[in-house]
Amino acid sequence: MCGIIGYSGVENSVPKLIEGLKALEYRGYDSAGIAVFTESGISVIKAKGRIANIEKILDTEYQNLESVCGIGHTRWATHGEPSDRNSHPHGTDRIRLVHNGIIENYIQLKKELSACDYSFESDTDTEIAAKLVDLNYKTSEDPLQAIKTSVEKLYGSYALGIIFDKYPGKIYAARKDSPLIVAISDKGNFIASDIPAVLKYTNRYYQLEQGEIAVVEKDKVTVYDECGSLIKKDIMTADWDVRAAEKCGYEHFMLKEIYEEPLAIVNTIRPRINDGLPCLDLPGLTDDTIKAFKRINIVACGTAMHAGFIGRTAIERLARIPVKVEIASEFRYKNPILDKDDLVIIMSQSGETADSLAALRLSKEHGAHTLAIVNVAGSSIAREADSTLYTWAGPEIAVASTKAYTVQISLMYLIAAKFALCHGKITDDEARQYLHALIEQTPVAVENALKLSDRCIQISEKISGAEHLFYIGRGIDYDIAQEASLKLKEISYIHSESYAAGEMKHGTISLITEGVPVIAICTQDHLVEKMISNIKEVKARGAYVIVICKENTHMDKEVADEVLKIPVLSDLFMPIPAITVLQLVAYHTSVIRGCDVDKPRNLAKSVTVE
Ligand code: M6R
Question: What is the CA(541)–ligand 1 centre distance, in A?
Answer without folding.
Answer: 35
